[in-house]
Amino acid sequence: MSVAPASVVVVSRHRPQALRRCLVSLTQQDHPAFEVIVVADPAGLAAVQDFVVKSLGFDTPNISAARNLGLCRASAPVVAFIDDDAVAEPSWLTRLVAGFADLDVLQATGFVRGRNGISYQWRASEVDRQGQDHLLDVGTGGVFDATPGRAIKTQGTNCAFRRSALLAIGGFDPAYRFYLDEADVNLRLGGRTAVEPLAQVHHGYLASATRRADRVPLSLFQIGASTAVFLRRHARPDDAAWQRLQAEQTARVAAHRRAGRLQGAAEAALLRTLADGWADGLARDLPDLTALPDAPPPFLALPGTGPRAGLVVAGRSWQRARLQAAARAATGRIVTVICLAPTMRAHRMQFHPDGYWLQTGGLFGRSDRDTSRFRLTTFRRRVATETARWQQFRPVDG
């Protein structure tokens, strides 16, 4: 079956090494014909100058404006988006864009794994006109229609859109500099959305201008501002909405304080930034959105992508250096390294910047966090179990 060409937009700001790691993961996609558009600050562009990509300089903290720049350079009929602090499973793009074979599908999304590379950070939900999420059971996936007052939500680090439709509605609204930008697009586009659970990315939540590496927020200003803008666009920013937002963010910040990650004074200061952002969002100019120009440069395929063989390299924790050396030497393959210690330590799966997947943990430790902390097994059986987990998403043998 032929696979339609696609464009992938990656926006990055002040995270050049993360951006480079993301692009390394994209070079391993089994999709045979796609281009990459990088919108980044000077350090980010310098970090990826050896990749064949369309690149645009942009160093302003406005992800919607940056995505629109990438969208206008995209030449394929379907445009996907992934964050710079995420990496994609090799089958991600092929699966994400497959739903657009249905010409009524305007949007698509997949599932997102979190910091440990195994647990899910996000699966599927609807979003309403108040900006509230509602969990959605999508089973094995499929195509879902928007309902009155709600849309299927696409996750920003794992989403795709029919390019012509996104251009026609003006792309992303620059009034959302961060937060709720995709939800706004979902409601404005409406229509049909493809949800593919097996189209997966791993998202690590690296430090940024708005949060620390441990996910403690540095400012709630843009959350307050974007919520006010969202309600002005889709509902009404009344006292009840403000009180709900206050309660949600107060509970979030208090949880960080109880965990010892924040002091009381910092908690109060953060909540003041929320109020300041809310006031700013109420006052922002919200012009009508008009169609974006449809005059992209020629398609620029990322070379070397397409299906390839896989390889699993497994061993004990004291063999880690040798296992990783073997992974680096296996050029042209998708390599998964499984490195087990004689312990009960929980497992982690990470994509190494050198281009291989690395799973570490105890032989007797758990992978899925909702299972028992201890499991009695043999080395061979455990390797087979973990290999079976990942063969849904990446090749594990020749």
Q: Find the structural class using helix and strand composition.
A: alpha/beta
Mean pLDDT: 95
Q: Percent range for helical residues?
A: 25-40%
Residues in β-strands, percent: 15-25%
Biggest sheet statistics: 10 strands, mixed
CATH architecture of the largest domain: Alpha-Beta Complex
Strand elements, count = 17
Task: Estimate the global geometry from the Cα principal axes.
Answer: globular
Q: Describe the oligomeric state of these chains in a short phrase.
A: single chain
Record the SSE blueprint:
Elements: E1 6-12, H1 16-26, E2 34-40, H2 42-47, E3 54-57, H3 63-73, E4 78-83, E5 86-88, H4 92-98, E6 105-113, E7 120-122, E8 125-128, E9 133-135, E10 142-145, E11 150-152, E12 159-162, H5 163-168, H6 181-189, E13 192-203, H7 221-234, H8 239-258, H9 264-283, E14 310-316, H10 320-329, E15 334-341, E16 348-351, E17 357-362, H11 379-390
Parallel strand pairs: 1-2, 1-4, 2-3, 6-13, 14-15, 15-17
Antiparallel strand pairs: 4-12, 5-13, 6-7, 6-12, 8-9, 8-11, 10-13, 16-17
Helix pairs in contact: 7-9, 8-9
